[in-house]
């Protein structure tokens, strides 16, 4: 009974962290029994095999998270069917400033590990991308309802946005050591090579509409930085980046890439403790680190009373259908507020990884019945945001492994996850998702996914393992 009490205490402590806003990001991967990725976020969680290796297809991850654009908040309904777009209902469902769309992609190029006594050593080479777009309620409200809803100097449209896009490669050396039968510790230093970064920080731009003449002016405060592995001597505008990537096959490798710059470092570390054969806890920190971008292209605009033209999108349906007048978008928004998209040479700068702090507890009655509680603090939009996952996992003769989970999260929505793994001797295949409902939208467009569910996540892969280090 004391063991059960300990597990309940762990669960309650994790649940307390839900007093703030949260995001979920693919925790199901670590919940499958008898798979080498159980220590993906925490190198202190014991690896259950004596060795593993995978190339190319061992871990592929795709995910999209959307904080507040929800299908039920976009339309008026009659008999369960949408009949009309409800702009005010949608706008009222948004937070004033805390709205975001987050995308992630990762691919393990090579991964292997082996055990020597109490020490397990691993190596991972991974390609990673994450993109984050943050926006204020008024940023969309200005387009949907026009400037008539923002009349007078005391009622400006808060035109704040933020963009943070990173693409990089990661090479990690993992060291895990079993101190005794109860305590295992782990550390995973990382060497990072930045491929591209775009950062836009616009938190103070306000658009004012004169209540008598309806003329529009803006107070602008925008900071933008961009860096890339491309040799950027002849890049002067944001559009030049797209041109380089679009014509990549026309260039010789050594003439395009500057592989000596944009280095960074990161680290994962953690520990796990086993109270008994059935009960254990773990805690860890994932992705603590930075990338230093040596060369940058920058733009900083700080000015008041900028003259603005009319709205650039007629209604929100144009935005949903991606029917935008880009010429008007450029001339009205970029041309008048951003003062065109030209860039100038800037100094180097640093960007931080999306750090995650995790606390996990489990109670295993038998290999077929295991319950887990996982609390996460995930860094997004410059804040740590918590989430809680409750999960069931099981294994049948180590051949069939499965998990089902329920995640409570304000930003990515409460969701049901599931995963399955099959071991054919040394060959291991698996697929997991933290939102099984998204499987009904496999053929849907990105916008349909965003407006139907808050979280769309899937991981799958093939990896080879040998030996069994899990205690009976």
Q: Return the structural class.
A: mainly beta
Largest sheet composition: 21 strands, antiparallel
Radius of gyration: 25 Å
The number of distinct helices, counting runs of at least 4 residues, comes to: 8
Instruction: Estimate the strand proportion.
Output: over 45%
CATH-defined architecture: Beta Barrel
Overall geometry: globular
What's the average pLDDT?
77
Number of domains: 1
CATH class: Mainly Beta
Beta strands, count? 23
Distance between the termini: 22 Å
List segments where confidence is low: pLDDT < 50 over at least 5 consecutive residues.
Answer: 1-24, 247-256, 310-316
| Fraction of residues in H or I helices | 10-25%
**CATH topological fold name:** Porin
Quick description:
The chain is mainly beta. The protein is 14% helix and 50% strand.
Could you walk me through the main structural features you see in this protein, from its secondary elements to its overall organization?
By secondary structure, the protein is mainly beta. It has one domain (2-466): Porin, CATH 2.40.160. It is built from 8 helices and 23 strands. The protein has a 21-stranded antiparallel β-sheet that branches. A two-stranded antiparallel ribbon has the order 3-4. The two termini are 22 Å apart.
Produce the secondary structure layout.
Elements: H1 2-16, E1 51-55, E2 60-66, E3 75-78, E4 81-85, H2 87-93, E5 99-116, E6 119-135, H3 137-145, E7 157-158, E8 161-178, E9 183-202, E10 206-209, E11 216-228, H4 238-246, H5 253-256, E12 263-274, E13 279-293, E14 296-308, H6 316-320, H7 326-334, E15 344-346, E16 349-352, E17 356-366, E18 369-380, E19 383-396, E20 400-408, E21 415-424, E22 427-433, H8 446-452, E23 455-466
Antiparallel strand pairs: 1-5, 1-23, 2-5, 2-23, 3-4, 5-6, 6-8, 7-10, 8-9, 9-11, 9-12, 10-11, 11-14, 12-13, 13-16, 13-17, 14-15, 17-18, 18-19, 19-20, 20-21, 21-22, 22-23
